[in-house]
User: Fold this.
Amino acid sequence: MEFNHFLSAYYPDTRYGGDKLIEDMLDQARLADRLGYASVSIPEHHLINILLNPAPLMMAVRLASETHAVKIMTSIAVLPIHDMRIFAGEVVMADILTQGRLILGVGRGAFAYELARLGAPIEESRARFDESLAVLRALLNQEEVSWSGEYYNFDPITIMPRPVRPIQMMMAVMAPPAIHACTKQGFHIQTTPLMGSNEKMLEQVGAFHSAKAEMGENGKDLTLSLSRVVWLAKNESDRAKKLDLAHEYYARFDNVFTGPGEVKNGAITALPRTQTKEELAQNLLIATESEMIDKLAIYAEAGVDEIIFSQNIGTSNAETLENMERIAEKVMPHFSDRITLAAE
Assistant:
């Protein structure tokens, strides 16, 4: 099992400054590269202070100049809010400028507040995404593409420059039936149970592996990346404090994911949660060393190819960097030879 560090750019205090926030993400990417993480991932969100990054491809190019080996994954690029005739060329440029380290994770978007204000209502996001994906793939793989559809109508065009290599692409999807269907279409998969149970996680992983088995040789190279909030607690007191932070994080996340979307000056209101801290503690990877190793073993045994560690839960950047190092030293070598080799 390989490891990915999520540059999740949580911004609970908007007085902190966007320049400092982005520099923190660069610090974390540089450290992930040195520690032997296989990849880093970049979200795309606009107008809100969770998972804040309005320009993931721009960030990917900067990261490539600051790192040496990590793959750079979008997690995820929200296709319905982009014009694919422009976005396709930007993807090619990013692939060239990252020298092939870009992995393009794509999805339909998840926050109704954001999508509505960007002119792509969540009620239309599935149809918009399906057509956008089809247009994007056509533009990347063919020349003189024309289109007549619900959202795109254009005469023959060829994006320039042309791709210099096949663009690595992953599909972000959460529902097990959709994971199964997307895998059968030949996509690598990004998923997450969010704050849900391990049973939900195992259903997601099972759907992926069931589809791979049905595909036989055609599916053997497909991979599954799965995201979880993680923190290696120093002791039980530290564990409780980090769980409090994670609970507050999800109080904001829930607001825009399934709630009313209450946002003021770009800051999401933290609303009361129905999930208890005890239930959250059972599901997230906030644990002391031995417990975390035991918990991660479940993911490895289930067949997760890469686990995406979301470690930005409201701590200072210095504390997050320290946590990344402790995880790489104490936990990750149990699962990945890459980490052991990076330390030598």
The first helix runs from residue 18 to 35. The two ends are 19 Å apart (CA to CA).
